[in-house]
Specification:
Layout: H1 12-16, E1 19-24, H2 30-44, H3 49-52, E2 68-74, E3 77-91, E4 94-106, H4 115-128, E5 133-138, H5 143-151, E6 157-167, E7 178-189, E8 202-204
Parallel strand pairs: 4-5, 6-8
Antiparallel strand pairs: 1-2, 2-3, 3-4, 3-8, 5-7, 6-7
């Protein structure tokens, strides 16, 4: 789950004015992709120029492309975003259908608009699609942040000590096409209990991260 860190807190009244829209990827026009790409460059840029690089031009995705997006809008334009992609991952040798959640970002002036707000819009769609689990990953440095945003609210469970194997979205000379990361796994139980999440310390996406 790519997460862009915001810098300054927004007022509660500003957060209340955010309107959420659920969009399928095929519904987006070129102008939508252009606006999203600019939003991601500004959101991810403060965390490092490399993180903003995938969103050059009108590209509004970094690795795998989402099927569905939850986009928050206010008077200034795009306020927040989270994407969803259905896929099978392999958890400790068990193939498992998940809804991978990623491309999460909040405009820098709305830090208080946490992932929990977007997930309350996304969750009914996960249920409608019959997905047993929502799935995402975050860097270990963000574990406390994610605990505050989702685990303490009962939305998700965080699992540490996991290595996740993914492919790079592009193939480069002299660079392995495979990336292995030590991350915190975020599991959102939807159609099944967290007790049914397979045991295992290796997860294979068999594709690029969302």
């Amino acid at each position: 789950m790519n997460i862009a860190a915001s810098r300054t807190a927004g007022a509660p009244t500003a957060r209340a004015q955010v309107q959420w829209s659920l969009r399928w990827e095929s519904e987006l026009r070129l102008a939508d992709h252009s606006e999203l790409a600019e939003f991601f460059r500004k959101s991810y840029g403060p965390t490092g120029a490399f993180n903003a690089q995938p969103f050059e031009g009108n590209r509004s995705w970094a690795g795998a492309r989402p099927e569905i997006r939850v986009i928050g809008y206010d008077a200034r334009g795009i306020a927040a975003h989270v994407g969803l992609l259905r896929r099978f991952i392999n958890v400790g040798g068990v193939d498992l259908l998940v809804g991978e959640l990623g491309l999460y970002a909040v405009r820098p002036d709305l830090e208080g608009l946490g992932i929990s707000h977007a997930m309350r819009v996304m969750y009914p769609m996960l249920q409608q699609l019959g997905i047993p689990f929502g799935f995402g990953t975050v860097r270990p440095a963000l574990e406390k942040h994610m605990t505050r945003l989702v685990e303490r609210q009962g939305l998700a469970t965080l699992i540490s000590g996991i290595r996740v194997r993914s492919t790079h979205p592009d193939v480069y000379p002299n660079l392995s096409p495979i990336r292995i990361e030590d991350v915190i796994v975020v599991v959102f139980p939807v159609g099944r209990s967290i007790s049914e999440w397979p045991a295992g310390t290796i997860i294979d996406r068999n594709g690029p991260e969302l």
